[in-house]
Amino acid sequence: MSYDLVVRSRRAVLPDGQRPAAVAVAAGRIAALAGYDAPLDAVVDEDLGDVALLPGLVDTHVHVNEPGRTEWEGFASATRAAAAGGVTTLVDMPLNSVPPTVTVAALEAKRAAARGRCHVDVGFWGGVVPGNLGDLVALRRAGVFGFKAFLVDSGVPEFPPVDAGLLERALATVDALFVVHAEDPGSVRGSPPSPRYADFVASRPPEAERSAVATVVAAARRADARVHVLHLSSVAALAELAAARADGVRLTVETCPHYLALTAEQVPDGATEFKCCPPIRDRDNQDRLWAALADGAVDCVVSDHSPCLPELKRADTGDFAAAWGGIASVQLSLPVVWTEARRRGHGLADVARWMAAGPADLVGLPGKGRIAVGGDADLVAFDADAGFRVEPGLLHHRHPVTPYAGQRLTGVVRATWLRGEPVTGDAPRGRLLRADAP
């Protein structure tokens, strides 16, 4: 058989582990796996040598912001950044676009904005807000992958939070995955204007996450629903999560690169580029978060890419209370996680499980996130031993504000293929994905 593409690597990360292999591609799908030196006829035969071959990453937590806040980010820039970072599939959050994705009409407006502009495949979350319970079934049938809810102020007025009662009613309304920003508004304290990072962290204590997780667990248990805790930063919630899982609650949880690589101790006062919600916590908490990831208590790692206009970060005043809370990192997530994972003794197979297969399984995309026959030929050439210095000017997201500026990271994405085609930034080939409704 003649293939369209063969990619060979001595460090191919396959579902059964890392080994030398050749991956053969036909019509956009992985058609065969063979030995590294296997004779295979192909139009293009790419030998990566010792450069690793990973499955394309799946990032299920990205704020593209288009339409409505396209000056913050957009599908063209966000997906180009994603591809440059080895992400071949992303799922867009229902905010901070205007309108938010809380009706079918808003979903269609978002799809219209994305069509023909995406360099990777893109799916969409719907949202749960007060007043839209009647829209949830139609949104699910229209192909959203599930629904996001906030228990605390989202930061934008058009996407208000829900209380415990409304969350439970939403869970009972439609058979879908619900993903929740779990911070308890009763535990989040107002933060006075201050450039001190310690003041900001104190305003969103670990108890805010623990209490909110308890709320989510109780609602999921009563509704027998499937729920997912977004961007866990505090290990204070782990016991609650473990007990719920032991009781049979259908519960998963993610964390983010910034919680695994950055610590409160290293955040300078006034450095508002580090602000996110929930906040980056101390080094001991980070060590315990890594342990939870290693033992499976945390299911996956996704970016929570949340960019904004540079002036909204309030770098001029360094005021953490007023600054937008969000870190733009979709292009850097893989090297950020790999740098720290390698230091802690983890391998590329672990990273692929956390950042590719895990998120793909979360949203029900069996053809994504792994190098397996029949799956989409979404592949990443990753030079796992190469180092680089983060230069903001080389980032593709719209505003290159990043807390990683100047840092030395390990791991360079050398090439990305989407369904067997190289992603170069010149011709968007990404597809808009629809979830199958039950």
Which band does the percent of strand residues land in? 15-25%
Q: In what order do the strands lie side by side in the largest sheet?
A: 9-10-11-12-13-14
Largest sheet: 6 strands, parallel
- CATH superfamily caption of the largest domain: Metal-dependent hydrolases
Count the beta strands.
17
Pathway: Nitrogen metabolism; (S)-allantoin degradation; allantoate from (S)-allantoin: step 1/1
GO molecular function, one term: zinc ion binding
GO cellular component, one term: cytoplasm
Family: Belongs to the metallo-dependent hydrolases superfamily. Allantoinase family.
Describe the structure.
The protein is of the alpha/beta class. Helices cover 26% and strands 24% of the residues. It folds into two domains: 3-50, no CATH class; 56-367 and 387-408, Alpha-Beta Barrel (TIM Barrel), CATH 3.20.20. The strands form four sheets. Strands 9-10-11-12-13-14 form a six-stranded parallel β-sheet. A hairpin with a 2-residue loop joins β16 and β17 (421-422). α4 packs parallel to α6 (206-223) and α6 runs parallel beside α7. The longest helix is centred in the middle third of the chain and has 18 residues, at 206-223. It is globular, with a radius of gyration of 21 Å. The two termini are 38 Å apart.
